[in-house]
Amino acid sequence: MRTLILLALAGLGAQLVDGSLGMAYGVTSTTLLLAVGTNPAAASATVHLAEIGTTLVSGASHWRFGNVDWRVVAKIGVPGAIGAFAGATVLSSLSTAVAEPAMSLILLALGLYLLGRFTFVGFSSRNLGKPLRKRFLSPLGLVAGFVDATGGGGWGPVGTPAILASGRLEPRKVIGSIDTSEFLVTVAASIGFLAGLGSEGVNWTWAGALLLGGVIAAPLAAWLVRHVPPRILGSAVGGIIVLTNTKTLLGSDWIGAGGAVSTTVYVVLYAVWAAALAYSVREHRRNAAREREEEAAAAAGTDVKEGAPSA
């Protein structure tokens, strides 16, 4: 029962982050399942089955708040589903000894990307309003879907930053469109896992617990997307993912690091993570203060111009 409660809380927290950032539900949940000893393919299958429900509710919630561009959903979702089915088939055929460190390596790379992306890089709006072309979205969806299935997450970490970096779609619609199209990806990945593993390879109770937490959080996350600082959340989640998967890799047959080496690595990683969080908070406050000053200056300029004729 304790495990189910923890999974439900993890699903709730992961969906809050995912719905606000457009990423990290799968990566966060899969990392947790691997940490408690779940088979990599079964972990990814369990998470994707839970995501069928969470992405459906999340997509509906984002649509309700006007956060979805359906043209983007169509152009990226179908290729994403194809890539996810292929990725699920590949992962299902790998042995646990090979799959666990391989998946942790993928998750570690995604975690490092999240940590760096949201700590140091802001959003560009120079190209806002320009159309997103199919020749860009289709390959992106194919790669993101494959990584999502093989890594237990990756649709958002690959897709969201790539579209944000283009600057052609406002952040809230990037997040809403990625979350909505993820429904197609999770359905395709789940079909692939069930075909490769069979229903006995999935922990249905754990999937239900993750689903319950995610469904509760989805509407709130869609509302919070306009209010939560993505920079700080991204740094926090990226650090957690890096730490957890580093632990898995250090203890695997690939590395087999001793206690002293592991301790040193953890101390360094915690220090880097703390510094990244502090930097994210500082930069967020600095940018917010700068925006307030610019708005105040613009308002003052408007007042002067409006008052000039009557002077």
From TrEMBL:
It is a multi-pass membrane protein. InterPro entries: TM_pro_TauE-like, TSUP/Inactive_protease-like. Keywords: Cell membrane, Membrane, Transmembrane, Transmembrane helix. The keyword Acetylation does not apply. It is found in: Cell membrane; Membrane. Pfam families: TauE (PF01925). The keyword Calcium does not apply. The chain crosses the membrane at residues 102-125, 204-225, 232-250, 256-281. Residues 290-311 are annotated as: Disordered. One of its GO terms (cellular component) is plasma membrane. It comes from the Bacteria. Belongs to the 4-toluene sulfonate uptake permease (TSUP) (TC 2.A.102) family. This is Probable membrane transporter protein.
